[in-house]
């Protein structure tokens, strides 16, 4: 069913093979596990030691998917932007939730691999990239109880003149001897927090007057003073366990402070550029999955003596869905290539945030619109647990909130557009 | 192979910048001078204890006029030369006895180097390096940017083994000045390390 429109990609046998292999893994391993996790009534079952969550995570690590965003000089997978996009779309096709787990896993070691030296490389990055047993698992601590998606706004350089209008932040780091001590709560929406061994953490620094006066650090979560909340029971992305983390006098060495002033203020948005491309791409995978489910169903389900796809209203819906999937792939891939160039090739860390944010918004919105129409084509059966489409719809709906609401992401992009264009 | 810092290294860097079209293009919009501050450390002592290292460093200092070198007197770096190596920094070049200084440098400890800094100033302007030279303490304090750090961190940067951004982010080098300007001209910063500094291998 899949047709690659870009001839450079279509005619490259290596890329075709990469897609086929990743797709097979997504179809045979990720999707069945994701459905099983999704149906667990208690989120504690999702994170239990015998949960399929761990089997999938280990297999993803064995395949090297936890090294996509790591600097190749420090053990990264060494893929280019197109290859990364192909892998992530296929994984997202299998499950956005489980792909999020392998995405947030690598945020802290990826940042460390790009910017750190010495102990952090030896103690964190090297064992992390070599790990195939999920002994290391990362999460990304951004939002806080008093400051949700707004935290993303603070990462947009164009918003800096207004940043003091926001809450000044609850998780604080203060100097303590030759290291730092961390206090405060992160919100309930930290993906993989219940399962993670480490967190890539956003903190504010003295005098704690602004989210822009911040830093990004890596914190091992097995320390005294770290408290994790229960995994949240939620509507969608149920295979992506989320929960809160609270820090009470938690110490880290100075080396673990990976991005600090003045770089934090001016460059933390580059992390958001990378995560935005990631989200836009995996939700493109979800959009495609929903489209394929609807197309297949519409060819087999007969109403009024003919398959659904022979009814003009359904045909029209299928076309619109196709258009959204294809445009989402083209757009997110192009912007992934731009961000990749600025991050891993030129290393100037000056990717266009308005484009990256719009890739995330476009991918998520396309996924929701496609999943909405797909469910509509299924009719009443789409509401039952018998078909995958209801999970895709719930996951797509959750996506409009996770990693920053689309409204706030759009507002951040708008500040950049008004200032830079 | 050049010694860092030395007269030979400065001349080679100026040549590399002049020849590099990639650097000229990347830095075509850059306007701003740098005051660089190199702090002495263990690696500095080790390099000074090698004849080539000592000769290179003396040649670097010799690029300054006597009046400028005189301003080091009474500073920690001036004290290292006058009290530990037996030659005040404002001595004429022919007064520097490399053999005698090498025999004394072995007694030098990291503690002796506390606060001992060497300063050099570089003027980058629209893709060219208009000046690069050692300067006296207090000179060019009004430079657009200041970059300071231990000698070992500087060597990592000028050898091209580590990029400037990683060194600054990991606190090995400290950058002061208008950061938003630097961020908008990251291409120039990256090209200076990759295309110019890395093009001059150091020993």
Strand residues, percent of chain B: 15-25%
Distance between the termini of chain B: 5 Å
CATH architecture call of chain B: 2-Layer Sandwich
Which sequence of strands runs across the widest sheet of chain B? 3-2-1-4-5
Report the strand count of chain A.
10
| Radius of gyration of chain B, whole Å | 17 Å
Reported by name, the CATH topology of the largest domain in chain A is: Butyryl-CoA Dehydrogenase, subunit A, domain 3
Specify the oligomeric state: heterodimer
Contiguous runs where pLDDT drops below 50 for at least 5 residues of chain A? none
Question: What does it look like?
Answer:
The complex is a heterodimer of chains A (421) and B (203). Chain A is α+β, with helices and mostly antiparallel strands. Chain A has three domains: 7-130, Butyryl-Coa Dehydrogenase, subunit A, domain 1 (Orthogonal Bundle), CATH 1.10.540; 138-265, Butyryl-CoA Dehydrogenase, subunit A, domain 2, CATH 2.40.110; 267-420, Butyryl-CoA Dehydrogenase, subunit A, domain 3 (Up-down Bundle), CATH 1.20.140.10. Chain A is built from 15 helices and ten strands. Chain A has a four-stranded mixed sheet. Chain A has a four-stranded antiparallel sheet with strand order 2-3-7-6, with helices on one face. The relative contact order of chain A is 0.12. Chain B is α+β, with helices and mostly antiparallel strands and 203 residues long. Chain B has a single domain (7-199), classed as Nonspecific Lipid-transfer Protein, Chain A. In chain B, a hairpin with a 2-residue loop joins strand 2 and strand 3. The termini of chain B are close together.
Task: Draw up the topology in text.
The complex is a heterodimer of chains A (421) and B (203).
Chain A lengths: L6 H4 L2 H26 L4 H5 L4 H11 L18 H14 L1 H10 L1 H9 L3 H12 L7 E4 L8 H5 L17 E5 L2 E13 L6 E7 L9 E7 L5 E3 L13 E12 L3 E3 L3 H5 L1 H32 L1 E2 L2 E2 L4 H34 L7 H26 L10 H11 L6 H15 L1
Parallel strand pairs in A: 1-4
Antiparallel strand pairs in A: 2-3, 3-7, 4-5, 5-8, 6-7, 9-10
Chain B lengths: L6 H13 L1 H6 L4 E9 L2 H7 L2 H11 L4 H5 L5 H9 L13 H8 L11 E9 L2 E8 L9 E6 H8 L5 H6 L3 E4 L2 H6 L1 H11 L7
